[in-house]
Amino acid sequence: MDAPLPHSDTHTRAGFVSLPDPRRIELLLDALKAAIAVPGEHRLFRAGKLPGLFAARAGLAAEAALQAVRDGLLETARTETKGKLVTEWVRATPRAVLFVTEHDSTRSILRELKDVLNATRAGVPAFLADTKAELAALSAAFEARATAMLTRLDDLAKRCEAALRRAETTGSAVTEPVARVVPWAIDALEYLDRRGTSGATGTCPLSELFHAVCLNSPDLTLPAFHDGIKRLHDVRAVRLMPAAEMDEPEYAVVVDGKLMYLVDR
User: Is 97 left (phi over 0), alpha (psi -120 to 50) or beta?
Assistant: First the structure.
């Protein structure tokens, strides 16, 4: 070695009780386990980039090395001298195995447990973030599916309602009073129902309904259409409503002093 090993605090002066430094014991255990794991000779101290059982020739590392040699945990195998540099090569003894098993079993378990706890603690935020993201994605998917289902149910309900209205319109109880006064009433009501289930947006203007009715009643005049649509409004078969804007005002009809341009069921 370059220099003699330092004095260790394991040699206690009279009247004092020796309390081993836990940091030195940890350095000693690490060195002994390294020597036991790889049988054969090892440098006692690290030299530059060359590995050694102990990192430095001073401080706690040097004290741990002194204790290992003094207590017979490591034995000197040979020495190399290059100028003033002396390198000691050592090997582990059976006492090293006993020392490690006696001192490191509980310590190793506690250290591993601490590492596991630290790793688990560090992973909790990421786990929570991942779980929240998964729950958010699941909630979004559920909401999208529920919305789509409600949309389909609403559409089906509208179609059922329209079908019922058509059935009521074509039934004997409705056909006789309505069809006798307004022959094209069934065509008008069916068109409004089909328009509602076809995906058309907005309320039907009277101009659109007039042209739809004329497909089966080509001789229908606009005055006759106005008279018939007001009768359907009076019997509550349809609802006439005003409009903020009228693209074709000539199709509007006056009801109760108001100009009506839109029609719905």
Answer: alpha
- Mean residue pLDDT of the chain comes to 83
Tell the CATH topology of 171-264: Arc Repressor Mutant, subunit A (1.10.10)
Neighbours of 40 (CB within 10 A): 9
> Over 70: is that where the pLDDT of 124 sits?
yes
pLDDT of residue 65: 94
Residue whose C-alpha is closest to residue 4's, from 73, 92, 79, 71: 79
Return the number of other C-beta atoms located less than 10 Å from residue 253's C-beta.
Answer: 19
Cα–Cα dist 62/24, whole Å = 9
Q: Are strands 253-255 and 74-82 parallel, antiparallel or unpaired?
A: unpaired
| Residue 210 CB burial class (10 angstroms; 0-12, 13-18, ≥19) | buried
Contacts of 217 (CB under 8 A, 6+ apart): 183, 184, 187
The domain locations on the chain are 22-92, 108-170, 171-264
The one-letter amino acid code at 169 reads T
pLDDT in tens, 169-222: 554 434 566 777 888 998 898 898 888 777 778 899 999 999 999 999 999 999
Residue 210, C-beta contacts closer than 8 angstroms, at least 6 positions apart: 220, 222, 225, 251
The model's pLDDT over 230-239, given as tens digits with 9 standing for 90+, comes to: 999 988 889 9
